[in-house]
Amino acid sequence: MRIVSVVGTRPQLIKAAALMPALRARHDEVFVDTGQHYDEAMAGAFFAELSLPRPDHSLGVGGGGHAEQTARMLLALEPILVGERPDAVLVYGDTNSTLVGALAASKLGIAVAHVEAGLRSFDRRMPEEINRVVADHLSRWLFAPTPAAVANLTAEGITSGVLEVGDLMQDLASRVGGQARDPAALAAVASGLGLPLTPGGYAFATVHRAENREPAAMRAWAFILGDAAAVRPVVLALHPGTRAALETAGLTLDPAVSVIAPQGYRTTLTLQLHAAAVLTDSGGVQREAAWLRTPCLILRDRTEWVEAVAESGGQMVVVGLDRGRASAELARLAPTADAPRLAAERASGFDLAPAGAGTAIAAALEGAA
Ligand code: UD1
Ligand code: UDP
Hints:
The protein is α/β, with parallel strands linked by helices. It folds into two domains: about 1-175 and about 355-365, 3-Layer(aba) Sandwich (Rossmann fold), CATH 3.40.50; about 180-350, Rossmann fold. The protein is about 50% helix and about 15% strand. The strands form two sheets. Strands 3-2-1-4-5-6-7 form a seven-stranded parallel β-sheet, sandwiched between helices. Strand 12 (about 295-300), helix 13 and strand 13 (about 315-320) form a beta-alpha-beta unit. The termini are close together. Bound molecules: uridine-diphosphate-N-acetylglucosamine and uridine-5'-diphosphate (UDP). Uridine-diphosphate-N-acetylglucosamine (UD1) binds near residues 9, 11, 36, 37 and 241. Uridine-diphosphate-N-acetylglucosamine binds near residues 10, 37, 43 and 63.
C-alpha cells in the first residue's frame, strides 16, 4: 500500500519512529512533516536520535494561532496528496497536524488511518479533544490503543474499521528503555546537564497543555513544583511554548526547580526511570511513567489514559492543580527516606514487553490493500 504519513510535533516524530520499521517492511511510505514543531530540541534532534529518514515533504508551517496554523497546513498538504496519490493517509494522535491530515485526505477521497483513535477527555475546551473527535469520525481505520478507546468509539457509533492494537509508544519504550536502566545512564545525563542527580533523589516534570499556560494555572503548578522542590530537587524539561507563556506573564519559578531545555527521547526516559516521582500534564510522559512504574502526579483534571491510572495500583494520581493534594500524594508515593531504594529497585527490575502495535497496524493496512 502507498501511505502518506503526516507528522508535525515532538510526540508524532516519536510515534513515527515507533511505527516506521513495521510500516516500511510492508508498505511504501511517503513521510510528510508539517513543521508544526520546529526548534531543534522539539523536532530536529529526534531525526538523528531515532534514525528517522529525512521527510519527503517538509511543509515548514511553524507556530501561530489555531486558524492560521491549520489553514497553512491544509494549503500546503493538499497539493502534496494530489501529487502523491496515496492509498491512505496515516495520522497520529490529536494535534493540529492530525486534524489537517485527516481533513485534507478525506476531502480528496483518500482513506484515513488514525493511530491512537478513540481517546477522549470529554472536555471540548481542549484543542486535542476537537482534533481527535474529528479525526476519528473521518477515519477508515481506527487504531485504538486501549479497550476504553474502543468503548468511546462505540458510544459515538463508530464500530467499523476499529482495531484495538495496543500502545505504539510502548513498543518504542520497550525497544530502547533497557538502555536507561543502568545508574551510569543517569550519571551520564546528570553530568551532561550539570545537575547532581542521583537515583530517587529528584523529581522530573514537564508542563505544556494549553490550559496550563494560563496565568492562574501557571501560578498554581508553580506552587506545586515549588512544594516538591522543598523536599528534593525538581528537574523541569520546559516546552518552549510554556517558557514563553511564563515570560509573558512575568512569572518565575522557585530556584530549586531546575529548568532545562526539552530533552531527547532517551534522556527523558532515563530521567523518568530514576526519578522519585514524575509530575506532568503530558499524555506521553504519563504513560511512560506508568510503564517505568515511577510514581506520577498528573497535573490535569482528567486523563484520556484511564486504564493506566486504574491499573497503577495507586502509583498514578490525577491531582489537577490542587496544591494540598499534590503535596500529600507526593509524600505518600515518594517518601524521602525510601525514594532512593524504590527508584533503584524499579530501575534494576525494568522489563517492558512491546505492545505489538506497530506490527498490528502494518498488518491491518496490508490486509485492506
Ligand atoms: C502541540 C499539540 C499538543 C501536543 C504538543 C506536544 C496542538 C493543538 N497541540 O501543542 O496536543 O501535546 O504539541 O508537544 O496541536 N513552540 C516553539 N518551538 C517549537 C514548537 C512550539 O517555540 O518547536 C512554541 C511557539 O510559541 C508556539 C507554541 O509553542 O506558538 C505552541 O506550539 P503548538 O505547536 O501550536 O502547540 P503545542 O503547545 O506545542
Ligand atoms: N519528551 C522528550 N523530551 C522532553 C519531554 C518529553 O523527548 O523534554 C518525550 C516524552 O518522553 C514522550 C513524548 O515526548 O515520549 C511526549 O510528548 P509531549 O509531552 O510533547 O506531548 P503529548 O504526549 O502530551 O502529546
